[in-house]
Amino acid sequence: MLRYQEDNELHRDFHGTTNTTLDYIAKHYGVDALKMILRKTGHDVYKSIHDKLAKGNASELIEHLNWFFYREQGKYQLTVSENEIVLEVFECPAIRHLHKMGREVSPYICLQTSEVNAGMCEGTPWVSEVKVVGEGHCIQTFRKEAGHDTK
Fold first, then answer.
1. Nearest 10 degrees: Cα torsion 124, 119, 113, 16
2. I need a labelling partner for 61 at 20 to 30 A (CA). Which of 11, 51, 74, 79 fits?
């Protein structure tokens, strides 16, 4: 079962807070510090996903991606095969909400996605990549590398 499957009222204002926080950390502590925090978030906050990925099991990651994009009414396509998960986001819910609020989108918003994903995969047979296609449109790929023992 998905650890973070919240089904209470959805508060999208956290996107505004996150957006401001990304800018603040980068400005006051530097981009390297921001990357470190985001990777640690992926590794520690999403520990149950990380731990399953370490065993070669991507089921919770798949459920997590599907649940949150569905819940936020994101426009996305999730394609899953044995060794690859591809999430194409056609309209990012965070960026959509920031525009709706009249807020400038942080230049670090996509870095957040790539570093959190990398943190979830760190030390596991899985690697991640985020390709930004355009504003609010990205392709997130998780790939299981050959030759990793998952005992």
1. 150
2. 11
